[in-house]
Amino acid sequence: MSLADDAANLVDRNELVNLALAICNIDSAGPTEARVAEYIYDWLKHEGFKARKMGLLSDRFNVIGTLPGTGGGCSLIFNSHMDTAVRSWDIWRRRDPSADVFHKAWIEGDELVGEGIVNDKGPLAAFLIAAKAVKTTGVSLKGDLLLSGVVGETSREPSDDPPGTVVETKDLGARFLVTHGGVADYALVAEGTGFSIVTVEAGEAWFKITWLSDQPGFYTPYLPDRTTMQESPNMIVRAAAAVSALERWAAQYQKRYSYEAGCGLVIPKAQVGAIRGGDSTGIGGTPEVCSLYFGVFTVPDQNPLDIKQEIIDALQVAGVRPTEIELYHFRRGYEARQIDRLKEAVLRAHRSTFGTEPPKPNSATCSMWRDVNIFNELGIPALTYGPRSERHSHKRSFPIDALYQAACVYARIIVDLCNQERAKPQPRSAKP
User: Fold this and answer.
1) 42 is known as an active-site residue
2) What's the distance, CA 86 to chain centroid?
3) CA 53 to CA 38: how far, in whole Å?
4) Angle formed by the axes of helices 400-417 and 340-354, nearest 10°
5) Do 389 and 325 have their domain in common?
6) Into how many domains does the chain fold?
7) Which residue in the list 27, 83, 185, 288 is annotated as catalytic?
8) What confidence tens digit (pLDDT) does each residue in 321-378 have?
9) Which domain holds residue 215?
10) Residues 6 or more apart in contact with residue 140 via CB below 8 angstroms
């Protein structure tokens, strides 16, 4: 039996379930991660890891634990986000934002249920327990092992409010972690992939598209006879006409820009995510201002300014050219480079745990933005691997076995990769 098998055999299934339930029953929806971060920090310290808090804000901070290596080996950082996606105040996005499934976790038969379980505190618990199992073996790792939980992966981004009004941005999470010491030779982002190995993920560009009336608004009794939606003095009506044009553009865009990466297919999709116009407390007059908020996913190396021009052109053809279009959020997508060592270690660990090859990633898994992009952007070869239920979209759960298997894979990866000799840096040739 190998050292990696020894570590996997020490993964305690009950302890894993208890830890997952504990951290997933600390609600961390949106910008409320402090309590769960404190819990994880205390857990790391109690289990003998070197623990550190790092963050820009006192109530939203990342946590990192370290198991130092003896030297000369590859270092590895595991990463998951502590925030969950659905806030109880999301009344204009969800029919039932306060439902227990978004804020709690429980066992139902042979499954763990809850938003936090699947996205993303369940995988976080899995690599914490995996690291404890490795530590319990007493095996010395050559390379450092880092364990990180970050804020803000599901974060919103500022759009119309003055700076600082809403302190939400993805920059508080993985980016802050890496730029303040969360650095290793390789990164494994533990998120749902259905146990496929994902080495590419999409970027995203968000656009605010605004129509301003060129004439005073009409009190409803004075509204002129209707002509076309494109000519309406009501900017909400014009924006509604633009939605059809944007839908047509989006359908063609995802076909034209689909990208076959090394691990799978990226299909960059787009949709209208919000609309602002008028005032519900005074609807007796014509809204002179309306904005659509349009989210577009991108393939690696795509220029968002090219997308902006395409949107302008599509709306021009439809006869609803906006007054202005603003790019207010952009995150680039990446395909991992120099990832072979980590990928091979994941492959070996997966085969040893499951006895089969990992499945090929589905396109949706490759076509979203997640924290793995931050590591690849900042020069740390990174991939995503973890459990995911096929029923994720309508029942946020996966089998207890899946979480346990993930922890076993993670334990094997740690022993394998962190005991490989680190490549010596090659001197750069002098520029002429």
Assistant:
1) no
2) 13
3) 9
4) 130
5) no
6) 2
7) 83
8) 999 999 999 999 999 999 999 999 999 999 999 999 999 999 999 999 999 999 999 9
9) 203-331
10) 69, 70
Other C-beta atoms within 10 Å of 184: how many?
25
Active site residue 324: no
pLDDT in tens, 26-64: 999 989 999 999 999 999 999 999 999 999 999 999 999
What's the average model confidence in pLDDT over 394-422?
Answer: 96
Same domain, 319 and 339: no
Q: Say if CB 101 and CB 394 are below 8 A apart.
A: no
Structure confidence by residue, pLDDT tens digits, 260-304: 999 999 999 999 999 999 999 999 999 999 999 999 999 999 999
Are residues 327 and 345 located together in one domain of the fold? Answer: no
pLDDT at 391: 64
Report residue 431's pLDDT band, with 50, 70 and 90 as the boundaries. low
Residues for the chain: how many in total?
432
* Active-site option among 27, 33, 153, 204: 153
d(C-alpha 323, C-alpha 97), whole Å? 34
Question: 249-258 pLDDT, tens per residue?
Answer: 999 999 999 9
